[in-house]
Amino acid sequence: MAKKTPDNNSVPGASEDKMRGRMRGELDKPVVLEENAPQADQSADKKVKKTAKSAKSDKPNIFKRMWKGLKGVISELKKVTWPKGKDVVKSTAVVLVVVIAFFVVLFGIDYVLSGLSHLVVDGSWTSIVG
After folding, report:
1. Nearest-angstrom CA–CA distance, 118 and 127
2. Beta strand extents in the chain (DSSP E only)
3. How far apart (Å, rounded) are the C-alpha atoms in residues 34 and 42?
4. CA-CA distances (angstroms) from residue 91 to 30, 33, 80, 85, 96?
5. DSSP characters for 62-112?
6. How far is CA 98 from CA 43, 80, 92, 105, 108, in A?
7. Which residues contact 119 (CB under 8 A, 6 or more apart)?
8. Whole-number Å distance between alpha carbons of 105 and 89
9. How do residues 22-36 score in pLDDT, each as one tens digit?
10. Phi–psi pair at 91, nearest 5 degrees
11. C-alpha–C-alpha distance, residues 87 and 81, integer Å
12. What pTM was estimated for this model as a whole?
């Protein structure tokens, strides 16, 4: 028999009967915000806003950030294992052979379907030459 683990989303101390008809995480009493907040909280908010603005200005300028990014790219490119010249030539040859093979196959399919459509419509096979 599997161990019974507590549900992480359940509210401690709340029975299933109390939780019926409500969504998980819904509180028993609604939170009421006071309309007359003390002035000390407002001054604290202003201080937080000022520190947020100063943190924004501490960011280095765009050129320093771009240079740092380029240095990171260069360092990563130095770590790359580059293929040898023979490997590049072999891979290029394989790609060219596959492209030419697909060209021939697709040209053949196009020629046959075009000829069949002209045969049905005009009653004669269309040739490439004229």
Report:
1. 10
2. none
3. 13
4. 68, 69, 18, 10, 9
5. HHHHHHHHHHHHHHHHHHS-PPPHHHHHHHHHHHHHHHHHHHHHHHHHHHH
6. 71, 27, 10, 11, 15
7. 125
8. 24
9. 566 655 665 665 555
10. -65, -40
11. 12
12. 0.42
Token couple for 16: 């299933």
- C-beta of residue 118 within 8 angstroms of C-beta of residue 110: no
Sorted by where each begins, the domain ranges of the chain are 83-130
Residue 84 is inside which H or E element, if any? none
HSE, CB side, 13 Å, CA atoms: give it for residue 117: 6
Cβ atoms of residues 2 and 18 within 8 Å: no
For residue 127, how many other CB atoms are within 10 A of its CB?
9
Q: What is the pLDDT of residues 6-23, one digit of tens each?
A: 555 555 555 555 555 656
Q: Among 23, 2, 3, which Cα is nearest to 11's?
A: 23
R_g of the chain, CA atoms, integer Å: 36
Degrees to nearest 5, angle at CA 63 with 48 and 71 = 110
Determine the straight-line distance between the first and last CA of the chain, rounded to whole angstroms.
82
State phi, psi for 31 to the nearest 5 degrees. -85, 130
